[in-house]
Amino acid sequence: MSPGSKTSAVLFGLSTIFVALAAGFLLDFRGQPALLYPIPLVATNFLDTATVRRSYADLVRAGDDLSDFDCYACHERGKPPRLRFDADQHLIVPKEHSDVVMGHGRHGRNNNCFNCHDENNLELLETRDGHQVKFADSPALCGSCHGPTYRDWEAGAHGRISGYWDRDLGEAQRKACVNCHNPHSPRFPSRQPAPGPHLLRPVAAGAASSGTPSNPGSEWVSLVGRDSWRAAVETKLGVLAREDARPTGAVVKLAQYPSR
Amino acid sequence: MPAPEPNFTPDAAPADAGVTRRSFLRTSAVLTTGLAALAASLKPLLQMNDFPTAERFLQKYYKEMTPDDMAKVIRRIENEVERQYGIRPHVRDLKPMDGVEFVYCLNLTRCIGCRKCVHACVAENNQSRNPEIQYIRVLRLPDGSLDIEKAEHNYAPESVPEKGYFYMPVQCQQCKNPPCVKVCPVHATWQETDGITVIDYDWCIGCRYCEAACPYWARRFNFTKPSIPKERLNPEMSYLGNRPRRQGVMEKCHFCIQRTRAGRYPACLEVCPAGARKFGNILDPNSEVSYILKNKRVFIQLKEEMGTSPRFFYYFDV
Fold first, then answer.
1. B296 close to A (CB below 8 A)
2. How far is the alpha carbon of A121 from chain B, nearest alpha carbon, in Å?
3. What is the pLDDT of residues A196-227, one digit of tens each?
4. Most-buried pick from A241, B11, B110, B244 (CB within 10 A)?
5. Given 1.10.3210.10, 3.30.70.20, 3.90.850.10, 3.30.470.20, which CATH number is that of B102-316?
């Protein structure tokens, strides 16, 4: 073999490799970024740090409407209201107080307003052993029955505290019982959960709880430009398990998008 | 003696000494094709948009930086963020406090599985929104069992809590004996004196060994360039904490270092509507966490048998 033809063979081989590489990179067989499907920004109500309820103390601090606590606008001073019960000894809530749901305790015996309210002064609360408590100090009343929880709350192990863990650097606000629990119906209310993790490879709609009531926007994925071309190629090559899984339009249902 | 005749024949002359028309055309065709192919094969580099600046490339290791170096780095980060998001952030490098070791306690009786902590964390710590990176994973487990391998991660009922289930949020456990730190080949992650395991995002090479080593699925990798909408950017940042990350680096929960080292509670605790999350200094006998560990039924350090000794405790009320 003459030196000239050896050189050209090497050059020919090299350029073949280069051309193949160029084709590979241009067509991008591998190494495309993963298909991103739109993830809606989480609703700001899930970022809200407000408590479940606003306590009397909160209303006072905010200078808000306290007319709900102005008992003697309707009641008469020095005349304890009379409670009425039905045949099963359930309290009949008067229509003026129809917002009150009597659900404190499951034994049905905590059905008397004056277990907690002071019947002689409706603007105060009263413990079972006769201590009067202001609305703003209601945890003392709750603690008169719920001792261990009150102890934990005082130590910071129950309930919410926000602000500064380092009390030298700033203040911490301890939330009261009534910031989370409705005293008339104290079970912690249920709520809608925030969206869960977004998977890079969406799972099939029928599969375990990927149902997306809290996450409706993630159901759709937009395939545009080369991605739809690529999808068509994959369909042709039989990469997809089911040909009908990929509609022809630019938008496919995410639930039908197969995992690779 | 006459000089030796040079080895010269009329036939060989063009091949050796000159260029014929044919060889010129052949060589230049090959060269042009080759160069074009080379250019095409380098095309993907055009898509690289995050070339390190000389400043970042020459940046020192975190622990070797002088305060002056750090001030320069912070200025660079502030400029980069401002260029990208149009918001001038406030970047700090907060150091651990003396006599402080952070501990987290989570009340499993109270957690209702609402996932507010997950999203408060994303908002506070400038995680990528698409793809979304979340540091906290809330597991749903049937009452009476604790087989976390069978936990449901993607539950989405109309309302929580659901009857018959309890919820267990899992995030970085800030281990005393962290496997992730041991495997890092470049020492880009380490444990600070207040117990927080941190990552220097500028030192991380993205090998993901730590992700594999972590038994709590706590570490997250930026597979793509993180995307954060401008209006959701948290401008209060710290170097080891929530400053925006690049593609190709690891990140994880750092107990909101930018908040907790300034004395504040972490974002997940602030947002928890049920008060299930408790955080504080375990070296302070009057802190909430000291009370909990002394008095409450603290049942686990998660995967205790791994010997990682987490600083994250789960407890019950009853």
1. yes
2. 33
3. 988 655 444 433 333 333 333 333 333 333 34
4. B110
5. 3.30.70.20
